Amino acid sequence: MLAHFNDDVLFGENWNNQDIDVKTRSIITVAALMSQGITDSSLKFHLQNAKAHGVTQKEIAAIITHVAFYAGWSKGWAVFNLAKEVWGAGEGDLPYEDEAMRAHAKEMVFPIGVPNDGFAQYFTGHSFLAPVSTSQVGIFNVTFEPGCRNNWHIHRAKSGGGQILVCVAGRGYYQEEGKEAIEMKPGDCINIPAEVKHWHGAAPDSWFSHLAVEVPGEETSNEWCEPVTDEEYGKLK
């Protein structure tokens, strides 16, 4: 009887119903299992099924990130690890010549993206940018080469605003003016209030990637200040 409902009804009639396409059904199923904290082989099967039905690496990263805001970050990280296995790129799939950069890319489900040329003037070293979400809440995966950091800057806002950083790979630092730098490793989250002067970037010996989440606010803007000097940066370990 159970096999009948599972094979004939659930995976037969329900999955073949044309009211919703199979790609959408795959996304809904992954979100439902993730929200319940189910991260065993059944979820991995449905992740593989989602990939087979056209869900891309970029899309699954956005899906998991979105659901994590509602279901919890711990569930999100567990699903990210499974997704990395399913969407994990092989050596021939990564378009990076630098061996360390290729190794870093394999550590995360998010793409490294393209050179961050639009903001290059505000960075020491090379950085890369990959949009994860550009609607509702802006979420971007920012990647720094070893030694790269952005200038001191301030997120201005009349109310609300600020930024949230979530490290997804490598090792880096966040520092507020007048305070000691905070080391960031995968899973670490930093909440940056509006009107606080700060900088963030990679450790001298490691690639570093973090999600930058734009906190909604009123009359928000970004004020770029002076670069982090070699002397300031040299104090880091």
UniProtKB/TrEMBL annotation:
| One MF term in the entry's GO annotations | peroxiredoxin activity
Annotated InterPro entries = AhpD-like (IPR029032), CMD-like (IPR003779), Cupin_2 (IPR013096), HNL-like_cupin (IPR047263), RmlC-like_jellyroll (IPR014710), RmlC_Cupin_sf (IPR011051)
**Gene3D superfamilies, per the entry:** AhpD-like, Jelly Rolls
CDD domains in alphabetical order: cupin_HNL-like
Chain ranges of the Carboxymuconolactone decarboxylase-like domain: 3-85
Q: SUPFAM superfamilies under this entry?
A: AhpD-like, RmlC-like cupins
Q: Where is the Cupin type-2 domain?
A: 142-203
**PANTHER family attached to this UniProt entry:** BLL4564 PROTEIN, RIBD C-TERMINAL DOMAIN CONTAINING PROTEIN
What protein name does the entry list?
Cupin domain-containing protein
